[in-house]
């Protein structure tokens, strides 16, 4: 049927250029693919790419805006990484983010009025973490006790969370909705004590520091604690872990709940640092799904996640900014398309980095 | 009066079920071969935008449907290559497909956003049969794709259970090593069925613009139907006819608002929209415990790459 096949052999000597070269090669290949579609639609790819780069990474406001978008991506990236590196596929960080925002906004609206800002923000973030963890709980428990696919459960919970968020603002006169605005329903703004301060006249807020802090926390947890050790063993072989006396069930629950907590934190941070309200349209941006891209491109390494999140944040920011630019009106979706193709090339490239690939002439051997 | 509202809602649910059923049947085929393709939403969007473009430039409904299906199939080739040949992580690859498909379709569809379509599927009344109460509007006054979808589900059921190729396909999904030793070309089976899945998802997307929504409007066209289709496969425990019934149930949940409001039942629209997802979780938990999974029909090697050397 297929006249040739690809034979994959695991490389015994993975050179540094295999490890670091492939992500860059993936980006280049994705940009070329993107260029093809841009040209087909009548845009000059070079102009678009130059504008993309200039908008996101050269001006002061460009950089700060890119970093602002990177904040939630770092959290959702960590959320995905914590679970995925254990072969637990929590793809519901998106929904955990919504619940984090719902809980965070609730805390901001009801608890923080009389608190000093540092404490108020802390309360909002803590509430968001609880919200995210609660939303991840069914997935974690069903997985641990019934072996139910966490992929489907987390995905379903994401949509339930989305409709819940929409109900709170558009479908009811809830606590979250601004009672003074009647024409178009909006979320009620949280008091200043629940907001993270912005830097100067930029949109960047202290959340970026918190995000980097959590990167270090997650790294320490994975590398230096017994919980992290258990997670690593269960991830590589649940059977071996059980044999060694590691509580597999508890470890799976811990990892998935931790993942949900980080997703919830992303949502609360968006409320506290950027949206200042439960804003369904401003929160349902696919930040949770993009987190999976971030984690996969960063190979589930916490520090690499910061770099990738900044890069993808810039891409997203450029997409938004370019839509409003005079002259060539490039649709915002260019950045989404590029994101998708970067990821596609990257996961393909990963295989090239780890394996020697030879083309065989016989019937499909590798499969 | 209210009874007519219910009948109208049920009849509308039939149409709403078609794209869900088509995409889910496609996903079922891919999953039976052992490949999980989370990219349904992306393939549906590409199918929808391609069908719209083709429909507007040719004015021919069937050409539009075919172009949409092929576009969905083309995108699924990427997933097949990554997950079967390169043995990449199927989950990440599927999600990448959604992101890429969403981006590409909205980008390509920018120029046609909000435009009306020149041609669309219309219901065909079966003469006097269409006047039978309840059964008439439900069964005998639908567009051709409704019947085609049911026929396809039956054909797929027959294919899986009664043909030699279908048996080989199931063995590839259950135990590729065994299938391989029996001389079944595992990779070829996986490629063909992943692509068939993409074609059906693309067809579902095409049907959306050709029959359900009057124009192309970004991701609003599919509104998460691709994800529902993924849930439906599990909900229907990998059984094609149950996919059709489940699609009708999910379609009803999407259309029930209209009827309930007429009845004076105050269920918020958002809660109705949650129903398919909640039902899927319940089904998963109730029937999906580890011991029962085999009886449910989940392919044992779903999501696992096959490497001959490591057998």
Q: Can you walk me through this structure?
A:
The complex is a heterodimer of chains A (367) and B (311). Chain A is mainly alpha-helical and 367 residues long. Chain A has a two-stranded antiparallel ribbon. Chain A starts with a strand and ends in a 7-residue tail after the last strand. With 311 residues, chain B is mostly helical. Chain B has 13 helices and 2 strands, in the order ααααβαβαααααααα. In chain B, helix 2 packs parallel to helix 4, helix 2 packs across helix 9 and helix 6 runs antiparallel to helix 11. Chain B is globular.
Task: Label this structure with key terms.
heterodimer, A: 367 residues, mainly alpha, ABC transporter involved in vitamin B12 uptake, BtuC, 2 domains, 69% helix, globular, disordered C terminus, B: 311 residues, 1% strand
Estimate the helix proportion of chain B, in percent: over 70%
Query: Class of the largest domain in chain A, according to the CATH hierarchy?
Result: Mainly Alpha
CATH-scheme architecture of chain B: Orthogonal Bundle
Number of helices of chain B: 13
Number of strands of chain B: 2
Termini separation of chain B comes to 65 Å
- Parts with pLDDT < 50 across at least 5 consecutive residues of chain A: 363-367
Shape of chain B: globular
Instruction: Tell me the strand order in the biggest sheet of chain A.
Output: 1-2
CATH domain fold name of the largest domain in chain A: ABC transporter involved in vitamin B12 uptake, BtuC
Average pLDDT of chain B, rounded to a whole number, is 85
Provide the CATH top-level class of chain B: Mainly Alpha
Mean pLDDT of chain A: 86
Number of domains of chain B: 1
């Amino acid at each position: 049927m297929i006249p040739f096949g690809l034979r994959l052999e695991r490389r015994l000597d993975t050179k540094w250029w295999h490890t670091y070269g492939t992500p860059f090669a993936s980006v280049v290949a994705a940009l070329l693919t993107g260029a093809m579609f841009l040209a087909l639609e009548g845009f000059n790819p070079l102009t678009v790419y130059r504008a993309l780069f200039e908008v996101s990474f050269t001006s002061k406001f460009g950089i700060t805006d890119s970093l602002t978008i990177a904040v939630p991506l770092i959290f959702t990236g960590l959320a995905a990484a914590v679970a995925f590196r254990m072969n637990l596929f929590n793809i519901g960080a998106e929904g955990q983010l919504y619940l984090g925002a719902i809980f965070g906004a609730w805390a901001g609206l009801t608890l923080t009025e009389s608190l000093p800002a540092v404490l108020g923000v802390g309360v909002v973030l803590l509430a968001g973490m609880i919200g995210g963890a609660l939303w991840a709980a069914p997935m974690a428990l069903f997985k641990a006790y019934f072996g139910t696919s966490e992929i489907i459960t987390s995905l379903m919970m994401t949509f339930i969370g989305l409709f819940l968020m929409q109900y709170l603002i558009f479908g009811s006169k809830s606590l979250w909705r601004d009672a003074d605005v009647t024409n178009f329903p909006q979320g009620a703004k949280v008091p200043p004590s629940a907001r993270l301060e912005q830097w100067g006249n930029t949109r960047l807020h202290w959340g970026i520091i918190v995000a980097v802090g959590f990167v270090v926390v997650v790294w320490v947890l994975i590398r230096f604690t017994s919980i992290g050790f258990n997670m690593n063993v269960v991830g590589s072989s649940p059977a071996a872990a059980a044999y060694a006396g590691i509580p597999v069930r508890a470890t799976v629950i811990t990892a998935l709940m931790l993942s949900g907590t980080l997703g919830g934190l992303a949502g609360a941070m968006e409320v506290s640092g950027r949206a200042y309200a439960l804003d369904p349209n401003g929160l349902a941006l696919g930040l949770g799904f993009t987190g999976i891209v971030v984690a996969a491109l960063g190979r589930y390494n916490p520090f690499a996640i910061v770099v990738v999140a900044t890069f993808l944040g810039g891409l997203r920011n450029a997409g938004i900014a370019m839509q409003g630019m005079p002259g060539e009106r490039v649709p915002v979706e260019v950045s989404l398309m590029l994101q998708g193709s970067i990821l596609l090339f990257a996961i393909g490239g990963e295989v090239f980095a780890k394996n020697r690939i030879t083309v065989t002439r016989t019937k499909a051997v590798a499969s | 009066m209210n009874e007519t509202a219910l009948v109208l809602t049920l009849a509308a649910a039939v149409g709403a079920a078609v794209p869900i059923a088509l995409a889910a049947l496609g996903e079922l085929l891919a999953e039976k071969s052992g490949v999980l393709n989370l990219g349904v939403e992306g393939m549906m969007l590409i199918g929808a935008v391609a069908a719209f473009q083709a429909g507007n430039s040719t004015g021919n409904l069937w050409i539009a449907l075919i172009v949409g299906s092929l576009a969905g199939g083309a995108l699924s080739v990427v997933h097949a290559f990554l997950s079967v040949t390169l043995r990449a992580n199927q989950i990440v690859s599927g999600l990448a497909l959604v992101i890429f498909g969403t981006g590409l379709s909205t980008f390509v569809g920018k120029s046609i956003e909000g435009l009306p379509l020149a041609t669309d599927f219309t219901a065909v009344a079966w003469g006097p049969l269409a006047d039978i109460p309840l059964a008439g509007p439900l069964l005998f006054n639908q567009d051709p794709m409704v019947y085609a979808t049911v026929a396809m589900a039956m054909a797929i059921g027959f294919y899986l259970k009664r043909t030699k190729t279908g048996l080989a396909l199931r063995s590839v999904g259950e135990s590729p090593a065994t299938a391989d030793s029996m001389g079944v070309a595992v990779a070829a089976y996986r490629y063909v069925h992943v692509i068939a899945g993409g074609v059906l998802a693309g067809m579902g997307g095409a049907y959306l613009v050709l029959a359900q929504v009057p124009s192309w409007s970004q991701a609003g066209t599919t509104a998460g139907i691709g994800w529902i289709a993924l849930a439906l496969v599990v909900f229907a425990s990998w059984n094609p006819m149950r996919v059709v019934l489940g699609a009708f149930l999910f379609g009803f949940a999407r259309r029930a608002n209209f009827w309930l409001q007429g009845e004076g039942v105050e269920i918020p629209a958002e809660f109705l929209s949650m129903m398919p997802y909640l039902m899927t979780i319940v089904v998963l938990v109730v029937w999906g415990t580890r011991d029962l999974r085999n009886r449910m029909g989940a392919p044992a090697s779903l999501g696992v790459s096959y490497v001959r050397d490591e057998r």
